Amino acid sequence: MSLLEANTTADARLGMRQRAEHLRRLVAAASGEVVQRVKSYMPAWVDPSVFVVAGDDAYPDSLGKLPDWVRAVTQRDMVLLFAERGPWLPGEVSRILCHELFHAATWTFLAQQAALPWWFNEAAADWVSTREFGVVARVDGVAQNAPSRRIQAGVIAEPSPLVRDFTAYLLGNFPPQAMQRFLQTVKASGDFEQAAAQVFDLWRFEDQRSHG
Ligand SMILES: [Zn+2]
């Protein structure tokens, strides 16, 4: 785990560094358990890089301007947690870390994120993290009232509540092994829809409809 620092004045940097240190300690305390939980959904595991970022101007340029509600992102196998966008409570750290590690792990396993549609990737990360660590009430009203949650800078996306609910319904109470099998099937076939139909038994809906 590393710490990226902002290029600002000494005083501001000290405050950012303290917040980042605090978050880094929380992440260090939580990461063993969170990694174990995410691992149970993954066919293979390569440790992602987790960075605690102190200060908005320490963002990698490639991310562009992040919306206010974004507190963490994953680029490929690199997880970035933004210390200044707290408050970071222990329960939130576990859930958000779980969500981001899921993204990083699927990217590593599939080698190309394009194999998974972004909406499924987001909704599945949400499903896994909520299932493992429960729902944590958002503290910041900004996140609740964000007017737009569309793709930003090509990497930031959140599915609509409808898609999120649909995916959670689709995944239902499947055990972690179903996600492993699904990701293996996506990788083998390179076809998301075919894998989803096969593993999650999508066609049962068709069957029910055709039988009245
Ligand atoms: Zn996400």
Write the layout of secondary structure elements.
Elements lengths: L1 E4 L4 H30 L9 E6 L17 E4 L2 E5 L7 H21 L7 H16 L7 H5 L15 H11 L4 H14 L2 H8 L4 H7 L2
Parallel strand pairs: 1-2, 2-4
Antiparallel strand pairs: 3-4
Structure description:
By secondary structure, the protein is of the alpha/beta class. The chain has one domain. The protein is 53% helix and 9% strand. A four-stranded mixed β-sheet has the order 1-2-4-3, covered by helices on one side. α1 (10-39) links the parallel β1 and β2 (49-54). The longest helix is centred in the N-terminal third of the chain and has 30 residues, at 10-39. The radius of gyration is 18 Å and the shape is elongated. The termini are far apart. Residues 137-155 have low confidence and may be disordered. Zinc ion is lined by residues 99, 103, 122, 125. Residues 99, 103, 122, 125 line the site of zinc ion.
SSE ordering? EHEEEHHHHHHH
- Radius of gyration using CA atoms only: 18 Å
Tally of individual helices: 8
Principal-axis shape: elongated
Number of strands: 4
Provide the domain count: 1
Low-confidence stretches: 137-155
Q: Describe the sheet with the most strands.
A: 4 strands, mixed
Walk across the major sheet and give the strand order.
Answer: 1-2-4-3
Distance between the termini: 55 Å
Strand content: 5-15%
Bound molecules: zinc ion
> What class would the helix/strand composition place it in?
alpha/beta
Could you list some keywords that capture this structure?
single chain, 212 residues, alpha/beta, four-stranded mixed β-sheet, 8 helices, 53% helix, 9% strand, binds zinc ion
